[in-house]
Amino acid sequence: MGPNILSIYAALVVTSISIGFWAGTKTKNRTDKQSTANPIVPSLNPEKSKSLEEELDGNETDETEESTVSSVGDGDIGSLRVDSTDDNCKMVLVVRTDLGMTSGKIAAQCSHAALACYKTLLVKNPTLLRQWERTGQTKVALRCDNEGELLLLKAQAQSLNLCARSIQDAGRTQIAAGSRTVLGIAGPARLVNQITGKLKLL
């Protein structure tokens, strides 16, 4: 290769990198502007929002799934505010250990609880959801001994306007129908820790 070909090759590489950098920054700026406007649901219209909110207000059942989500006793989730951009948010999944669920069953039930919390915050408090996403999407699996303890934790969380969703199993596999298996609690870490701080890791 002669010096002329090397200089052409070097110029081509520098030009390609420059164009790629320029295109990337333009795309990022456009994405940031869209994200600031409504980063979670840019095209959510009021009719869809209302129907999703109505769906979340009652018990949600999906025939293809093995659980029911309970939102009975919700506080005003929408009124919950984060203090600043540094205010960490977290999601805690409290699993009943007295049911003897296999690890696969626990994983499925925790997934139901996490999704139920996410869908609720998407409609009722998208600002809190964005903050949870920005601060690392912290999820912690904890244990409790029985249904009574699970229901007490749920009531305490709802009294602080935290998102609290309990999962009831459909009873198609290992667990009796209607058994509450997992409680998902989401919100600012300072409040979630007040409720779940003494529980042990799963």
From TrEMBL:
Q: Where is the composition biased (Acidic residues)?
A: 54-66
Q: Name one Pfam family in it.
A: PTH2
- Swiss-Prot/TrEMBL catalytic activity: an N-acyl-L-alpha-aminoacyl-tRNA + H2O = an N-acyl-L-amino acid + a tRNA + H(+)
Molecular function GO labels:
peptidyl-tRNA hydrolase activity
UniProt keywords, alphabetically: Hydrolase, Membrane, Transmembrane, Transmembrane helix
Segments carrying the region annotation (Disordered) are: 28-79
Enzyme Commission identifier(s):
3.1.1.29
| A cellular component term, taken from the record's GO annotations | cytosol
Q: Which InterPro entries match?
A: Pep_tRNA_hydro_II_dom_sf, PTH2
Q: Which CDD domains match?
A: PTH2
Give the transmembrane ranges: 6-24
Q: What PANTHER family does the annotation carry?
A: PEPTIDYL-TRNA HYDROLASE 2 (PTHR12649), PEPTIDYL-TRNA HYDROLASE 2, MITOCHONDRIAL (PTHR12649:SF11)
Q: What family classification does the UniProt entry report for this protein?
A: Belongs to the PTH2 family.
Protein name listed in UniProt: peptidyl-tRNA hydrolase
Task: Look up and give the organism this protein is from.
Answer: Psilocybe cyanescens
The organism's lineage is: Eukaryota, Fungi, Dikarya, Basidiomycota, Agaricomycotina
